[in-house]
Amino acid sequence: xxxxxxxxxxxxxxxxxxxxxxxxxxxxxxxxxxxxxxxxxxxxxxxxxxxxxxxxxxxxxxxxxxxxxxxxxxxxxxxxxxxxxxxxxxxxxxxxxxxxxxxxxxxxxxxxxxxxxxxxxxxxxxxxxxxxxxxxxxxxxxxxxxxxxxxxxxxxxxxxxxxxxxxxxxxxxxxxxxxxxxxxxxxxxxxxxxxxxxxxxxxxxxxxxxxxxxxxxxxxxxxxxxxxxxxxxxxxxxxxxxxxxxxxxxxxxxxxxxxxxxxxxxxxxxxxxxxxxxxxxxxxxxxxxxxxxxxxxxxxxxxxxxxxxxxxxxxxxxxxxxxxxxxxxxxxxxxxxxxxxxxxxxxxxxxxxxxxxxxxxxxxxxxxxxxxxxxxxxxxxxxxxxxxxxxxxxxxxxxxxxxxxxxxxxxxxxxxxxxxxxxxxxxxxxxxx
Length: 433
Ligand SMILES: *Cc1c(COP(=O)(O)O)cnc(C)c1O
Description:
Radius of gyration: 20 Å
Number of helices: 19
CATH topology of the largest domain: Rossmann fold
Bound molecules: pyridoxal-5'-phosphate
Strand order of the largest sheet: 1-4-5-15-10-11-14
Number of strands: 15
Distance between the termini: 44 Å
CATH class of the largest domain: Alpha Beta
């Protein structure tokens, strides 16, 4: 088969199990630490925050974990997602490379995030939980979890980073359509929020602050907390992306030489790249690339050390690349990439030389987004555009070297609710953070 624009698998090809990379990591993960005692924590320490089903996945050494039937049925509403070939972009760039992307923007929420939101809602429901709390940056995670909670009849309280709450009013509307309650963060409704506002009444907020608020409310009010990225079980749920991609590449008898994902907490990158790690370890010619914003360059500029997952030090400490738990990144349009830390799994792979990192400034990212939109039609989310910029750079390198590589990136979400960011770019008023 050589004549294809996109490869669409059948519903039977929706994976039956998630891939857990932990047993295949070249160096084992370091345990999370208790924020107060700094001792390694066990399942019981996490029980106030998460249902046991997810805690067990977080620590599991099983290579494959079966996807529950109810979750798989919901996945089938939009999965498998297409693996697309960006012919028109290749042409525009005059590159001998082949450019592929997996379109996760086709989910109802418009991003990859429902892949874990639905699973997390399911496991909470299984254990009789009635209410969840969470944080959201750009609103993608809040929207995805609102949809997941709605499907399983759970209530949801969302703390939304204030700058995004103002910039992206329609994401708030989406969450409310799916039945969630949304509060801008920092807020006066929590101790953590009040503390931040006392020090800085104009705080734009950050994911770290919003996480603190969501955790505080979960613990005080007997709800559970849900995190949309960073944690091992979240990356595992996202491996449906890479597993489907592998199958689709097999159908056309191709294999990627470089796998690219934008990286906020690492979930879409992990979900796309981790199923290819074993191939790399087995000696295949394949590079894995994380792309982050220069304004929050955790992997490029952070330290590899234990840090709190939130801003005020209530969340467990994780060994990861971090800019410091009190780092508040400058306001940028890629709200989903503004996290001070990073997934321990992604950090581990970067530290051990199995994943490369690039960072880009905001304007060059939007320039790439426009190039992509004019060639391929689809308008990418600002976060996704980081991966697109890296894919374009790889394709240009191929033009210069004459190499016909296969470049594969994850199209983590569409940008149709980010049009004010595009206005900002097109009117040349965009700050170049
Ligand atoms: C949230 C989000 C990201 C960043 O989150 P990761 O956990 O790093 O994947 C990237 N792209 C889109 C569209 C998002 O919504």
